[in-house]
Specification:
By secondary structure, the chain is α+β, with helices and mostly antiparallel strands. It has eleven helices and ten strands.
Length: about 400
């Protein structure tokens, strides 16, 4: 399909109408805020059904090749859909790791067999993906991975443990980083990357309960689990390079994602309304100079983030530091969400401690819940401190 203003405007009208007619009503149970909070079978099936419906309508993976289940459209069409999903507060696309990380990676460097085997299942949510990078004892130092994969005939025998495995209880596949050679001089050289099946003997997942009382993360244990040698991505020992490519997709520093939103959107306008209702010294909080100043700063920052996404696609406007916007996106948006929730809680005073289920809480208690959940995004994919280092070194050229 051609990409021109008339066709894009006609397409946008079609998309607006479809989502207005098809966004499901709120179910009779609490929905998660992102793929990192999917902890019940009800939530899982509701969100999987919704993703499948969006895909079958042709609104997911629109820029991915038709040969593998995508739409074959220019990226601008998917961008319209994703923006409209956010505007209409549609449920998010649950299979985030598949849609945004594993899928783009497979399309970028996977074999023809891998593309035919995995891509459509990612899009229609038949095959849920999780990530096996982090380990219990190694924090943000991904290079110190100790989970071992030992070649044994036509299989690798895997032993070890991964943690913070989002959707681990429901996943069919995992992008797995494991150590295939423990004797290399460099800690990075002995790592390999696998597209590992989850439903094999020797793999066990245990749910992790969070401060919110919800689940979504698991710890994954490998006890002599055997996976085929065909699961390796690239060559043995090249896992670090493959993992770094994956993180470029995860952090939004590289394009090619399938589209759709990955979490419930929070807007400054919602906090403005909260400030109208909340009281400060007996008057509406929004009448306080300091509160108004904070809200204006957040409105400016929100708009700047929106315009930056457009600016990043115009080479003349990013010629000095072409990668700056993409490389900083994860840090900017995750910290913005955390700080916005913190402001919303502060506006409520002591009432900000009221949580989901408390009839006297503001906005049904969503702000304390959102604040606690916001830390997942500031840690996953590299902590905010790690992100700041990456921007300093790779964008600004500062020394390590």
């Amino acid at each position: 399909m051609q990409e021109n203003r008339a066709s894009l405007e006609a397409f946008k009208a079609e998309v607006v109408a479809w989502f207005e007619a098809n966004i499901p009503e709120q179910p009779g149970f609490l929905l998660p805020e992102s793929f990192m909070e999917v902890g019940t079978d009800q939530q899982f099936e509701f969100l999987r059904t919704w993703q499948r419906k969006v895909y079958e309508a042709g609104y997911l993976g629109m820029s991915w090749p038709e040969a593998y289940g995508g739409g074959g459209y220019p990226q601008a069409y998917q961008d319209i859909v994703t923006s409209e999903m956010a505007r209409q507060n549609a449920p998010f696309m649950m299979n985030t790791i598949g849609l945004n990380w594993a899928g783009p990676l497979i399309l970028h460097m996977g074999s023809e067999d891998a593309k035919n085997r995995y891509i459509k299942g990612i899009l229609n949510a038949d095959d849920i993906w999780c990530q096996g990078f982090s380990e219990p004892d190694h924090g943000s130092d991904l290079g110190k991975v100790q989970t071992k994969a030992v070649l044994d005939g036509n299989e690798y025998r895997v032993n070890g443990s991964k943690i913070w495995t989002s959707l681990g209880s429901y996943a069919k596949y995992m992008i797995l980083l494991a150590r295939t050679n423990p004797d290399t001089e460099s800690k990075y050289a002995g790592l390999s990357f696998f597209l590992s099946p989850m439903h094999v003997p020797g793999i066990e997942t245990r749910p992790i309960r969070k401060l919110t009382g919800e689940y979504g993360f698991t710890q994954t244990f490998f006890n002599d689990a055997r996976i085929p040698t065909s699961c390796i991505m690239g060559n043995e020992g090249e896992g670090w390079q493959v993992a770094m490519t994956t993180l470029m997709f995860e952090r939004g520093a590289a394009g090619g994602q399938a589209g759709g939103i990955s979490m419930i959107d929070l807007r400054v306008d919602d906090v403005v309304e909260l400030a109208r209702e909340a009281k400060r010294d007996g008057a509406p909080a929004i009448e306080d100079y300091y509160v108004r100043e904070q809200l204006v700063r957040f409105l400016i920052e929100e708009k700047a983030n929106q315009l930056s996404r457009v600016r990043a696609r115009i080479p003349a406007l990013v010629s000095e530091r072409p990668s700056a916007i993409a490389m900083s996106g994860k840090l900017r948006t995750s910290e913005f969400r955390r700080r916005l929730c913190q402001l919303a809680i502060g506006l409520q005073g002591a009432n900000g401690a009221r949580f989901i289920g408390d009839s006297q809480s503001a906005d049904a208690g969503k702000w304390p819940r959102s604040y606690l959940n916001a830390f997942s995004a500031t840690i996953g994919g590299g902590t905010s401190q790690i992100q700041a280092n990456i921007i300093g070194e790779r964008v600004l050229g500062l020394p390590k």
